[in-house]
Amino acid sequence: MADSTPGNWRRVDHYFATTLIDDDPTLTEAVSDSIAAGLPAIEVTPLAGKLLHLLARMSGARRVLEVGTLGGFSTIWLARGIPHDGRVVTLELEQKHADIARANLERAGVSEKVEIVVGRAVDTLPVIAERGDEPFDLAFIDADKQSNTIYIDWAIRLGRPGTIIVVDNVGRMGEVANPDTDDAMVIGTQRALELLGSDPRVDATALQTVGAKGWDGVAIAIVV
User: Fold this and answer.
1) What residues make up the domain containing 203?
2) CA distance 80 to 52
3) The CATH number of the domain where 202 resides is what?
4) Is residue 15 part of a domain?
5) Nearest-10 crossing angle of helices 73-80, 95-108
6) Number of structural domains the chain divides into
């Protein structure tokens, strides 16, 4: 039996990805171009991207909210999981990241499905709410962890009963279970999980994960 080590986590991730996911040069180039442009290498793994894609398809999502675009890798997966007349509204703080993402979305052939909103999400989410658009069917939150409770609240308010909310990076290398932590990102994650566990508007769970990105986790909730 193989030992549970980071090297073996990566090896199993590679096996899963090569077995279950077709090679896609546009996704590979999206990651490489993002790294070449100096963006941090914190995009979701291909397996996590495929999970988002499948969740969009399983739920029949037409409208998706994403908080944290980065280079658009997860955005491509989400956009490919919705119908041709669907829409992904993705929020990104940095204009440089948005520009890289826009180029990656164009190359992937999904740019017509995606609206990139640049600015602080805590400021742009109320603007989106004021537009009075149809509710979002799926929300993916993967931005600054300190503001996760704000993002989750808006995802609920902009959703409907049945809306799926996915919050990434909730494991924090196990530090999330430390009540004495002084790490702001961990504290933000703890507050987010506490909100998901106590807010009557949602029902939620969370899973630990290990893999190419180390020891982490994901929370999944449904608006009730």
Assistant:
1) 6-223
2) 10
3) 3.40.50.150
4) yes
5) 40
6) 1
User: Looking at the DSSP assignment, which residues form a beta bridge with residue 165?
Assistant: 139, 221
Answer whether residue 42 is part of any domain: yes
Amino acid identity for residue 147 in this structure:
S
Give the burial class of 131: count Cβ atoms within 10 A of its Cβ; 0-12 exposed, 13-18 middle, 19 or more buried.
exposed
- pLDDT tens digits, residue range 115-163? 999 999 999 999 999 999 999 999 999 999 999 999 999 999 999 999 9
What per-residue string of b and e applies to 71-81 under the rule 16 or more CB within 10 Å gives b?
A: bbbbbbbbbbb
At residue 92, the 3 state secondary structure works out as: strand
Phi, then psi, of 90 in degrees rounded to 5 = -120, 135
163 neighbors 123 (Cβ within 8 angstroms):
no
Q: Are strands 138-141 and 114-118 parallel, antiparallel or unpaired?
A: unpaired
Share of the chain above pLDDT 90, in %: 96
| C-alpha–C-alpha distance, residues 12 and 29, integer Å | 23
Q: 61 lies in a domain?
A: yes
SS3 assignment, position 91: strand
10 Å CB burial of residue 158 (0-12, 13-18, 19+) is buried
4 token code pair: 């549970």
Provide CB contacts within 8 A for 25, sequence distance 6+: none
86: left (phi over 0), alpha (psi -120 to 50) or beta: beta
- Tell me if 1 is assigned to some domain: no
